[in-house]
Amino acid sequence: MPGEILLKVLCSIYLSNQSALTQFLVYLTKLNAIYQMDCIKGMNEGLEQSSIDIIVTSPPYNIGINYNSHQDNMAFDDYLKWMNDFGKACKRVLKDDGSLFFNIGDKASDELKAFEVAKQIAHYLHLQNTIHWIKSIAVPEENINVGHYKPVNSKTYLNNLHEYIFHFTKNKDVEIDKLAIGVPYADKGNITRWKAAKSNGDRRDRGNVWFIPYDTVQEAKDHPAKFPHKLPEMCIKLHGYSPKTVVLDPFLGSGTTCVVAKQLGCKFIGFEIDEKYIKLAKTKLIQITDYV
Ligand SMILES: C[S@@+](CC[C@H](N)C(=O)[O-])C[C@H]1O[C@@H](n2cnc3c(N)ncnc32)[C@H](O)[C@@H]1O
């Protein structure tokens, strides 16, 4: 907002209501910023109620990942309690028509854990969609063999090549923009055959199975558990967005969600406890945007 217009807006708010001016200033300072702090404290004490359009995040999975400061091996009951508090905090800050996209994976040896965590969030929000994030797939019959992964050394378990993205909303009634991430029809005959298809052209709902391979990394791994840029991009597009949209990532890590939000022209907020990851995220944001 150019300085002169901003000054006029501030003056008119001041003249009509002084406490509204304070609130407006708090709002302005919080957007397009990332904070080194505990996310539940950040959400509960730093963010207004019903102020966030989209949360895209991936918490520590509690599977022993070697983070810089977070200990990823809590007692499982403590971890569930933490995720319960997290769900409560998300409900408070989310707008009534907001979306929480909650990415979580688990170990091949304990595939039920992700659902137990999702159930904690479900104490506060409704599960509107369950998306399966597929990282690698081989269909030799169709000449398909795509994506890469680190093979697991096990005689009993298959390589775990998927994670979940649980889409939570307040009332299970948030309209989503399915065609924004739509795909072309495999059988073009269906475009003329079905009424809905005719109006949408060669674009259909891609469904809840998303193939997103990891970004190819040339440099040394700067964070042990990044998700690909395409993941938050698809979530934000599916929810629908505009320059007014506020995107939050409470477990920011290397900053992927905020980088993507900024690239799409949305507002962003991020929380992360670790100083090294905050610096990493800031570097990325500076490189691709005018973030200061
Ligand atoms: C799975 S990683 C997120 C990775 C991120 N999606 C990315 O693409 O880089 C989870 C992150 O949560 C951070 N974290 C752990 N406890 C936290 C807390 N209480 N508040 C905020 N961040 C926390 C960890 O340091 C870690 O970077």
**Biggest β-sheet strands, sense, barrel:** 8 strands, mixed
Low-pLDDT segments, ≥5 res: none
Task: Name the strands of the widest sheet in spatial order.
Answer: 1-10-9-2-3-7-4-8
- Average pLDDT, rounded to a whole number, is 89
Which strand-content bin applies to the residues? 15-25%
**Total beta strands:** 10
What is the CATH topology assignment? Answer: Rossmann fold
The CATH C-level class name: Alpha Beta
Bound molecules: S-adenosylmethionine
Roughly how many Å is the radius of gyration?
21 Å
Helix content: 25-40%
The CATH H-level superfamily is Vaccinia Virus protein VP39
Shape: globular
What is the tally of helical segments?
A: 10
What does this protein structure show overall?
- The chain has 10 helices and 10 strands.
- With 292 residues, the protein is α/β, with parallel strands linked by helices.
- The chain has a single domain, classed as Vaccinia Virus protein VP39 (Rossmann fold).
- The radius of gyration is 21 Å and the shape is globular.
- The two termini are 15 Å apart.
- Bound molecules: S-adenosylmethionine (SAM).
- The site of S-adenosylmethionine has 20 residues, from strand 10.
Attribute tags:
Rossmann fold; eight-stranded mixed β-sheet; binds S-adenosylmethionine; alpha/beta; two-stranded antiparallel sheet; 292 residues
Quick synopsis:
The protein has one domain: Rossmann fold.
Topology of this structure?
Layout: H1 3-16, H2 18-30, E1 33-36, H3 39-46, E2 52-57, H4 76-93, E3 94-104, H5 113-121, E4 126-134, E5 137-139, E6 144-146, E7 162-169, H6 189-193, H7 195-200, E8 209-211, H8 230-239, E9 246-249, H9 256-263, E10 267-272, H10 275-288
Parallel strand pairs: 1-10, 2-3, 2-9, 4-8, 9-10
Antiparallel strand pairs: 3-7, 4-7, 5-6
Helix pairs in contact: 1-2, 3-4, 4-5, 8-9, 9-10
The protein binds S-adenosylmethionine (SAM).
